[in-house]
Design a protein that fits this description.
Layout: E1 9-13, H1 17-29, E2 33-37, H2 40-50, E3 54-57, H3 66-74
Parallel strand pairs: 1-2, 1-3
Length: about 80
């Protein structure tokens, strides 16, 4: 069964450029619109403007880790 994710807005938050780019490429091939962020602070600034449907967050990041980022997004 083939899934169609056309129009789904996804945010990928990761401090690794390789992981961000790989995720972006794969998600775009699946039809998603992808927004990337290098850390939690970058993500918080982009969430308001982009209003993603789903967010993938790396747990271990400098400055603001994934748990702290999720807590701030939830608020």
């Amino acid at each position: 069964m083939e899934n169609n994710f056309e129009g789904l807005k996804v945010m990928v938050i990761d401090d690794s450029k390789t992981i961000r780019r790989t995720a972006e490429t794969l998600l775009q091939k699946a039809g998603c619109e992808v927004v990337t962020a290098i850390d939690g602070f970058d993500a918080l600034a982009k969430i308001v403007d982009n209003n993603p449907d789903i967010i993938f967050v790396d747990i271990m990041m400098p400055r603001l880790d994934g748990y702290q980022t999720c807590a701030l997004i939830k608020k």
